[in-house]
Task: inverse folding
């Protein structure tokens, strides 16, 4: 495995770390099975790429892309909370709606960013190769986002959001407007996914309508891998775990695809994902069995 | 304090399983009074409690708490005035959150929640002192997940949580029914103490006639969604469970057929 693919895996892994944080909020904290992600990730990419190629500066473009994701997420939440559409179905509706919306935004199936400035080219320090600079920039950003979320979930509103997912009836009886909490949580979750998409488009040289396919599976895989290596109910550890999960996942993928004697190719990606997630899901079970034998309980 | 007037609630109206749960129920509870509510299964006890808390919206009638009409207010709005302990010990607390986080949630019940840190050092001291009064050793377990506690312990913490903020009325929904007899006695004793200390207006729904007569100062019996018996003061003082049954039979003009009422 080359040094390039290692840095590359770290780069993509960190981007999907943002997605994983979003998935952590929807699936784990709010317990809202949200597939909007498959639409909000390319939405972020589409908005950012379109604005950048139209001449807007990359930071504002990325911010607008993030806000677009927040808006998409809050609509999914609204469909569920106000229109009483089942959570999974509401998110599927939003996901397919976003497919058309993303095509409308881009005006064509893909928007390349070849010579345009991106957040990475602007921030890249002198004398550092781009394939090293990009993961470094992303690392700083992901760490900042992680600590911001840790702080938020320790505040009164953040705590109210966690209670909403864990026990909505109790939350309401304590005066938490649970509907609003779901809306806010879905907005934050999809904002993070769209931010991931915006950065993905800028790191991979453009946005593509199909870039969102399977995002939710990768996000969930990261969450599950993270949880099985660092099981904890503490928020600070959970946020760290899913980021590490996302990076590890990309490393496994890179490893699997780069080791010649296994004979796997790029088209085997989804199969490898399925196998990895299965392994991650089985680890806790195996661990429990082993403990049961040695602990004599 | 609480004025419920002519409440009607019908479940599944217009279908074969239509249930008229409340049929013109009216009840006034003055400030500081501790009322126990009894009745057989399906009498409308829980429905009435859920109507007061806001979990259910009444079809007609009005609910006034502390001079404010709350009939159409959602649960979280009413939480300013209403504190509640559920029957299921698992329902009143968030099992994924720690003891202190649960208490912090209750600490800001009915208040605007902002972006300040939820569990502050000063709060922690208050929680510790409150928990110490339970005598369960929970004051040393503030950062334990509440899911690790037993049902009785969780119910005791729920009661504490309900009294962290001043409320106009405390609703207890058969909150000892899911506990073993010893724990139930402990939680009941704790209830009496907390209600006494904070001079809370309280409405306690219970299955047990014994309990209904032993605690509180007024007992109300529901049947078919309305109040059929309302005793307080000296009249209530001399009452025993058989008297209550006899009174009930007389009021309704029919013999009680529900043995479930006798249990406990």
Result:
């Amino acid at each position: 495995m080359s040094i390039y693919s290692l840095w590359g895996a770290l780069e993509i892994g960190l981007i999907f770390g943002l997605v994983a944080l979003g998935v952590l909020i929807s699936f784990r904290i709010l317990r809202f099975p949200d597939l909007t992600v498959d639409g909000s990730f390319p939405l972020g990419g589409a908005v950012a790429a379109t604005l950048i190629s139209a001449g807007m500066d990359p930071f504002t473009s990325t911010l607008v892309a993030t806000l677009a994701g927040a808006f998409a997420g809050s609509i999914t939440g609204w469909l569920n909370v106000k229109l009483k559409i089942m959570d999974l179905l509401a998110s599927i509706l939003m996901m397919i709606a976003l497919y058309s919306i993303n095509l409308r935004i881009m005006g064509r199936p893909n928007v390349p960013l070849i010579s345009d400035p991106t957040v990475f080219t602007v921030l890249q320090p002198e004398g550092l190769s781009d394939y090293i600079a990009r993961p470094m920039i992303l690392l700083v950003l992901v760490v900042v986002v992680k600590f911001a979320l840790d702080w938020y979930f320790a505040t009164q509103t953040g705590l109210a959001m966690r209670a909403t997912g864990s026990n909505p009836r109790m939350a309401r009886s304590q005066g938490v407007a649970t509907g609003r909490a779901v809306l806010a949580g879905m907005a934050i979750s999809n904002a993070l996914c769209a931010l991931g998409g915006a950065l993905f488009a800028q790191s991979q040289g453009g946005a593509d309508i199909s870039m969102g396919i399977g995002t939710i599976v990768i996000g969930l895989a990261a969450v599950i891998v993270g949880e099985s290596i660092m099981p904890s109910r503490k928020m600070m550890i959970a946020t760290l775990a899913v980021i590490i999960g996302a990076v590890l996942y990309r490393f496994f993928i890179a490893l699997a695809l780069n080791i010649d004697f296994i004979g796997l190719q790029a088209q085997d990606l989804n199969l490898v994902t399925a196998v990895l997630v299965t392994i991650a899901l089985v680890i806790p079970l195996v661990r429990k069995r082993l403990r049961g034998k040695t602990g004599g309980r | 304090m609480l004025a419920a007037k002519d409440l009607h609630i019908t479940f599944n109206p217009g279908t074969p399983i239509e249930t008229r749960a409340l049929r013109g129920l009216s009840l006034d509870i003055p400030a500081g009074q501790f009322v126990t509510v009894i009745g057989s299964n399906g009498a409308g006890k829980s429905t009435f409690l859920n109507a007061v808390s806001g979990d259910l919206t009444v079809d007609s009638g009005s609910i006034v708490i502390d001079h404010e009409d709350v009939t159409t207010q959602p649960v979280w709005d009413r939480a300013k005035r209403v504190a509640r302990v559920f029957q299921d010990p698992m329902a009143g607390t968030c099992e994924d959150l720690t003891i202190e986080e649960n208490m912090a949630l209750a600490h800001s019940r009915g208040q605007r929640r902002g972006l300040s840190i939820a569990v502050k050092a000063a709060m922690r001291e208050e929680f510790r002192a409150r928990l110490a009064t339970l005598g369960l050793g929970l004051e040393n377990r503030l950062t334990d997940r509440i899911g690790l506690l037993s049902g009785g312990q969780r119910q005791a913490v729920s009661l504490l949580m309900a009294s962290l903020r001043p409320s106009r009325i405390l609703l207890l929904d058969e909150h000892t029914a899911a506990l073993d007899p010893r724990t139930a006695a402990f939680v009941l004793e704790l209830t009496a103490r907390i209600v006494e200390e904070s001079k809370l207006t309280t409405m306690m729904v219970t299955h047990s006639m014994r309990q209904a007569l032993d605690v509180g100062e007024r007992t109300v019996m529901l049947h078919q969604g309305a109040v059929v018996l309302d005793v307080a003061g000296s009249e209530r003082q001399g009452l025993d469970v058989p008297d209550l049954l006899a009174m009930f039979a007389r009021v309704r003009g029919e013999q009680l057929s529900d043995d479930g009422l006798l249990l406990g």
